[in-house]
Fold each of these.
Amino acid sequence: MLTCGCAAPRAEHRSHDGARTVAARQTDCPAPGRCAVSVTVHVWFDYICPFSLIARKLLAEAVAGRDVTCVWHPFETNPHCVEEAGEYPPGAWNRLVTPLAARYEVPLAGAPQNPLRRARLAFVGYQYALDCGAGQAYNDRLFTAYYYQWRDISDPVELTRLAADAGLDPGRFRDAVLSPRYTRRHLDALDHARDREAITSVPVISVAGERLDGFHGVPEPALLTKALDGAAG
């Protein structure tokens, strides 16, 4: 989606499928057709996917200084697994994650101490964070907690502490993640991703409707920059 990109304040909103977006509010354009256009980037992610962490860093660098609207869509890689600690396949982290993280200068000491098979409760909390306009702060806090502090983002008590760190009211957050309302909203978002968008793995980055290829979904920075430049005209 391309729109006139005159400078305007940005505000956080939630889309119909439970995604988070930072969008410029509508303003009158003093020079139609001559100012830069705003580019929409859609990203599907999973907290427990280390490639989502790497893609976040590359995207943040690529969009810096640009008029870009980023929409973050939740996606569970393993929606039918029990929500408990598991383990990575032997050697998978060192063989796949460590080299890619080093290549793109994403500091990772190692795999999370107790890697999760899924993190549904964290995603249910994300839906509440979106309603509070704190989707970005919530995601930043959870990725940091899971990969750098090795905290259990599937535990309701731990998750509530992290939500408070992101500026959310602990009591209201706890009630929200245990409510059917936000669980249903998250499940609807999953259905939309799988059935309407044909998402089967993450990360997936789409720039102005064009999905970018990459190793385990992580596009080369040059490809990402080229796509953003092309979308901006």
Amino acid sequence: MTTDLNRLPPEVRAHIAFQAPPSGTRVHALLNRLEGVRAAGDGKWSARCPAHEDRSPSLSVRDTGERVLLHCFTGCESEDVLAALGLTWSDLYEDRLDAARFAQRPNKALRRRMADLDPLEVERAVLRIAATEIRSGRVLGVEDQARVEVARERLKAWEGAR
């Protein structure tokens, strides 16, 4: 259950275990939706992670003034944490270009998982996903069409090399 702190009576707010940032700041939208929020220093908070069953705070939130940083110590991806709260990176950033750049940067866990993938399986997956989209009546965008063509050419070249 999330509570908008501004709706609480002042005497109740006085007993809350953390100092909320000013309403309207980038991090306010995030902290207002989390449970078990506690101050952990200047611009730092801990809370229960909404992306998994969390009984004690395992999520670290930090507002650097330029960025909002999230880290779940049990390993949840930041995007999963935001999705569980109904938020995206763009909700936390005023500059949408900065949010897009930050959200698209691959993290270490993703790079490790990608390194373990069979490249041919990746190309087959691209074609399967595209086929599913087309069967569902969706039209592929220009970038998706180009990626499908790359996958088709790579698989065709591999078949020819065998």
